[in-house]
Amino acid sequence: MKAKILVTGGCGFIGSHTVVELMEQGYEVIIVDNLSNSSIEVLDGIKGIVGKAPEFYNVDCLDYVSMEKLFTEHPDIQGIIHFAASKAVGESVEKPLLYYRNNIGSLVNLLELMAEHHVPNIVFSSSCTVYGQPDAEHLPVDETAPVKKALSPYGNTKQINEEIICDQAHANEELRAIILRYFNPIGAHPSALIGELPNGVPQNLLPFVTQTAAGLRKQLKIFGNDYNTPDGTCIRDYIYVVDLAKAHVKAIERMLAKDTKDHVEVFNLGTGKGVSVLELVNTFMAVTGVNIPYEIVSRREGDIEQVWAKPDKANTVLGWKADTPLSEVLASAWKWEKKVRHIN
Ligand code: UD1
Q: Any idea where the domains of the chain sit in the sequence?
């Protein structure tokens, strides 16, 4: 058995896929999740894939007393991957304080407990949202591109949390942090035993597409085709969640091997390829043979026109590459949606 890793938000979409990859590599995993946006059945899915369930605590990272108890019970935790956070952009505009309390409070608690219990390593889930709309000379975007003013409280919590980590790494000699800035994670585990389960009407593109394919939604709305892009729709870097999960294992390995060069390292996690909304929808239809009715509507407020990653640093330094073809990724998302909706 390799090191013991604490995964907060380990029942969520990216968290659960990361737990699977960690366990498959022989790590001992403890999940902390308050199930606010995930379900306990995810543990069965993980068990179905790796053969055993991880240890699970139904605890909110804001609950310092319970978290302290967990750290005391597990003095041998060697690293933390911190996913637990609220992530709905629109909701964060409506309820900013909820986002600031939840996302920032959770990280502050963890960093305090890490210092107190001498846990040195943390991997933090950040987002390409910190770059806003990069200027043309920064496309594709690498880690040196400037961080721009956040467009939502959600995005702001990611920026603030990155700064908190840097400040704490300055103060706490022992701390090592790897900040991973995700582009657009999509897809599901090939087994279809775990996947993405959004609450209510999906805000993200692919879950809306798969739910439309499954008949839950009448038609997809494409937000704008008058952008300055080849087909007029927005461009993103869609990254397979399993590839993304594997990057976390690489980050943990790097920290445990004490290979990190700086107290805080930042990596962009994307494929390096920009895909438009229309390309994604058309590829989905071609791969699955299912028609997706759509209409073009006006732009969505706050949307970025185009952003995709220059993942060279992660490729060379972490020794990681997102290389699953988009067709396979879209097929995995459809397989999962069919399983959830009991469609043959
Ligand atoms: C959004 C957030 C980002 C966050 C990420 C989490 C914004 C501006 N950004 O990314 O900060 O980290 O979610 O997953 O909200 N689209 C449609 N129709 C739909 C849904 C989406 O046309 O029904 C389009 C959008 O306009 C966009 C693309 O699809 O061009 C991707 O949208 P989405 O999946 O919501 O991701 P982001 O907006 O890139």
A: 4-186+238-270+309-322
